[in-house]
Amino acid sequence: MAQFLASIYGTEQDKVNCSFYFKIGACRHGDRCSRKHVKPSYSQTILCPNLYQNPAHEPNNQLNESQVQTHFDAFYEDMFCEFAKFGEVETIVVCDNTGDHLIGNVYARFKYEEDAQKAIDDMNSRWYAGRPIYAELSPVTDFREACCRQHETSECMRGGFCNFMHRRKVNPTLNRELELAQKKYLKLTGKDKSPSRSPSPAR
């Protein structure tokens, strides 16, 4: 029985724990959900909910798509540089959904769990663009499962209110520059090899 319960944990077969919270780190029902939202005590991934303010969602927005992308790229660079202060960043996902539980959510997965915890401890006392930052550990480990496949390949039929992540894409050149800068920094500081700790196993 214990083995069976472990095998269905966080899946749609699990009648106790919310599969959407386990997979996405957010649920449209919030505290009213009939299933449990089990918050992790340790994780490689952190969530800063509603942090990205997409100007395209503002009713009085006058920016064109190119200007909105420039605004997003600047935000993404800010986030990458801030998160990288705490440790090696593997992935950053910024949600472009419009549903309340996903709008502007920023997820960052670190190589090491202790670096994610350091980020949480620091970010919760910080502000960005005149708004306080809220940060928490997230159960999300596999963004391939969390991101909407329709949105990634074409156009999602559910639009911005889809319950899977609609990842906003950063300029590829900027992304490569940030990743190369991080690799160079890790190599120069010797942090690319850390025998005292190992990456968290996939769960």
Automatic annotation (TrEMBL):
Residues 12-40, 142-169 form the C3H1-type domain. Keywords: Metal-binding, Repeat, RNA-binding, Zinc, Zinc-finger. InterPro entries: Nucleotide-bd_a/b_plait_sf, RBD_domain_sf, RRM_dom, RRM_euk-type, U2AF_small, Znf_CCCH. One of its GO terms (molecular function) is RNA binding. GO terms for biological process: mRNA splicing, via spliceosome. Coiled coil: none annotated. Residues 44-140 form the RRM domain. Pfam families: RRM_1, zf-CCCH. The keyword Transmembrane does not apply. GO terms for cellular component: U2AF complex. The keyword Repeat applies. A zinc finger (C3H1-type) spans 12-40, 142-169. This is Splicing factor U2AF 23 kDa subunit. It comes from Taphrina deformans (strain PYCC 5710 / ATCC 11124 / CBS 356.35 / IMI 108563 / JCM 9778 / NBRC 8474).
